[in-house]
Design brief:
alpha/beta; about 20% strand; Rossmann fold; single chain; 8 strands; 7 helices
Length: about 260
């Protein structure tokens, strides 16, 4: 594990508070900003593994029908139905509809992402395909006036996605970066609210809003915080390696000047 992850305040908080991953705080901050969970009775979490977002849903919506979809299996969660399937396959859509008894969902989430290569244009393109596929699925199961949330990578592909999909079917479209998302990361979240299944009339005046989480009292995942530890319980131990002064400088393998 990278030392940066060990220092990450949200990583430590997730361990302390029993979340499966630090990404749980991203969904919690999205809910704080937009009130995502208000009135939700049916919700689908796409690309759900390892399950931190489904875990948030389980705790915050104990009476709701929660369906977690992923190709990979994950550990069981209270009040969460797991569906192991491919979000691009029609049979997966049919199974979600069956589990919902033919009723539409008020909320569809997707925090999935491919393994990044470090090549920004390539990563953004591959992520945009995943967002498009998850949005295609959402169009089939989302209730009128419902909400769709997806992780996105900022770039040209995102602008195309907004113009061709999001802004044509949702009254309110925003791009939001939670505090739990590292400022050095190119990820943000596409927040689409007030879904119209038949589409909206095109308008040049409708644009996506770009929002930064504005409460600067929250923890910053890129900042190093001191730990509240009683140092009096620690003791100093002598080093196990010989100091430089004890090395035999007559050894032919020891470098000398000259």
């Amino acid at each position: 594990m990278a030392s940066r992850e060990k220092r990450d305040v949200y990583y430590r908080l997730a361990k302390d508070e029993g979340w499966r991953a630090r990404s749980a705080y991203k969904l919690l901050q999205l809910d704080t900003q937009y009130g995502l969970f208000d009135g939700v009775t049916r919700v689908v979490d796409l690309c759900a593994a390892p399950g931190s977002w489904s875990q948030v849903l389980s705790r915050r919506l104990p009476e709701a029908l929660i369906i977690a979809v992923d190709l990979a299996p994950m550990a069981a969660l209270p009040n969460v139905i797991q569906l192991q399937g491919d979000i691009t396959r029609e049979e997966t859509v049919d199974e979600i509809i069956r589990l919902c008894d033919g009723k539409k969902c008020e909320l569809v989430l997707c925090d999935g992402a491919p393994d990044v290569t470090g090549v920004h244009d390539l990563d953004e393109f591959v992520q945009s395909i995943l967002v498009s596929r998850s949005m295609d699925l959402a169009f089939k199961i989302l209730a009128e006036h419902g909400t769709f949330i997806s992780k996105v990578f900022r770039g040209e592909c995102l602008e195309t996605l907004l113009r061709r999909n999001a802004l044509l079917y949702f009254r309110e479209v925003s791009i939001f970066k939670p505090e739990a998302s590292r400022s050095s990361s190119m990820e943000s979240y596409l927040v689409c609210r007030d879904f119209y299944p038949d589409g909206l009339a095109p308008s040049d005046n409708r644009k996506a809003l770009y929002t930064q989480c504005g409460d600067f009292r929250l923890l910053d995942s890129d900042r190093t915080y001191s730990l509240d530890i009683d140092l009096s319980s620690f003791m100093s131990l002598s080093t196990q390696s010989p100091s430089l002064s004890r090395i035999d400088t007559q050894d032919s393998s020891f470098p000398t000047s000259g």
